[in-house]
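We examine the record.
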Amino acid sequence: VSRVGFGAWAIGGVGWPDAWGAQDDEVSVAAIHRAVERGVNWIDTAPIYGHGHSEQVVARALRGLSEGDRPYVFTKAGLKWNPDEPMSPPALVGSPENIRAEVEASLRRLGVDRIDLLQMHWPPTDGTPIEEYWPAFLDLRDQGKVRAVGLSNHDVPLLEAAEALGHVDSLQPKFSAV
């Protein structure tokens, strides 16, 4: 993967609690295309970014690229929003059923057959232990729905617990170069 990727949090638009403000979807698609032209070969998005809107914009950008230029698509699971209260904070959910449902929805929104990297966005607060949610990620990888699986915002003890169950392909710690 390239040293720099395209972070798609901001292109989620408005109407959700962590929005960066209104975005023009055409400008967002053009920005993705320009990033790819300049050598960026991966996009980081998540269902929670605009309650699926970011993934839809990424899909539009992917449709405008040749297969050879298509960047890797990284997305996440584990944050569930309430459609009746879109500005309420999302729940951190680790149930395997929820993770599988999120992946199916992401595949549809992204318009892809397989997600290149799926990460658990945050450790869940719904009581689901890593011994239950990490095997769901491993199963999705084994089924070919995702190419690689990882953890985002997880500490070392959780990383070690996951690795004991099956290989963790990536770790995205809390870090910002900004």
User: Anything to note?
Assistant: Residues 56 and 109 are 5 Å apart (CA to CA).
